[in-house]
Specification:
Pfam families: DUF4429. 17% of the residues lie in helices and 41% in strands. The chain has 118 residues and is of the alpha+beta class. It has one domain: Roll (PH-domain like). The strands form three sheets. It has a four-stranded antiparallel β-sheet with strand order 1-2-3-6, covered by helices on one side. A four-stranded mixed β-sheet has the order 9-8-7-10. A hairpin with a 6-residue loop joins strand 7 and strand 8.
Length: 118
């Protein structure tokens, strides 16, 4: 089992095992206002059609797991921020992003990986 933490927008914890990935989003608060509620989503690798990802640059980076339920929505930083099948990445977390992609490629040999350009 591998666990990665990402700080952006309140923080994400992404956990990988041999058959599924779990995205645990801590939510985002500003003083007393809760801007985004915490949520947890578990996806079986067999449910993932493709993985779309973008490295951080002018905007934030993301990894988005495309399933039958969300494939009609085009990927962007805005869409990924609000998609429960995605997590956001800061510029200084590029090494962790590459580690995540390596693990996914190990477990998901038949899944397409699509690198989104800025």
């Amino acid at each position: 089992m591998n666990i990665f933490s990402f700080r952006l927008f309140g923080g994400y914890k992404v956990q990988f095992d041999k058959s599924e990935v779990t995205i645990d989003y801590a939510g985002e608060k500003f003083l007393f206002i809760q801007k985004a509620k915490p949520r947890t989503k578990t996806l079986a690798y067999s449910d993932i059609l493709r993985v779309e990802y973008k490295e951080s640059g002018m905007t934030f980076g993301y990894v988005r797991f495309i399933t039958k339920e969300n494939e009609e929505f085009l990927s962007s930083s805005y869409v990924a921020q609000h998609d429960e099948n995605a997590f956001m990445v800061e510029k200084d977390e590029l090494t962790k992003l590459n580690d995540v992609l390596d693990i996914l490629k190990k477990y998901c040999k038949s899944i397409e990986f699509l690198h989104m350009k800025a």
